[in-house]
Amino acid sequence: MPPGNPLSTVKRRYHHLSPNQQTNWWVVLGVAVLLLVLLLGLWVYLQFQAREKPYVELKGYRVATVASLNDFLRTGANRREFGQFALFLEEAGVADTIEPENLLRQGSDWLDINEPPFAIPPRQQWPNIVATLKLIRDEVVPSIGPVDIVSAFRTETYNRKAGGSQKSKHRSFCGVDLVPRSNIGRTELVEELHNLHARLGPDSNMGLGIYSGVRFHVDTCGYRRW
Description:
By secondary structure, this protein is of the alpha+beta class. Helix content is about 45%, strand content about 15%. The protein has 8 helices and 7 strands. It has a 5-stranded mixed β-sheet with strand order 3-4-6-5-7, with helices on one face. Helix 6 crosses helix 8. The longest helix is centred in the first third of the chain and has 34 residues, at about 20-50. The radius of gyration is 28 Å and the shape is elongated. It starts with 5 loop residues before the first helix and ends with a strand. The mean pLDDT is about 90.
């Protein structure tokens, strides 16, 4: 090996060390290698998490991240269409009920059925959600507190893959699935919602569905309960 080779220089210096110094040298080298392995492992883990978890947990349900929403809005004319949708909600007086972007959530099982997590409903269906949002703002929230959306409008393909009814109110953008933001228990939640449904009666045209956990459905397209 050429005398100017860096590795040769290191070896010569190593052999001139005392036994104790050689031991310390190996300890330092081992610690350095271990730190490098740990840093590499952390980087790989973070990269894996970023790729494998494009969602956040919301009361046990998966909703797509803000980064996923931004990717959706950058596609085609989605940002412009969403801006017009948000303006429609503002002019209808319901923009303060729930964040408009959350009304784009198709559901919490998009990863399982390989469908986009977001969709913008057709313009002709936008008026269908107004009465439902007013009901949520004026009746549901005062009864159980603030809520979050886990499913709103669904495309025909999404609804079919998810096993939804062909007459699902999600298809016509009249119904939404919600979860409470508070820590209200299921028993109390169900009681409050049943009382609300009974009090409002048929005149409210309120549809109410109770699912597992604290997830429930609300629409204003037919008085019924399940």
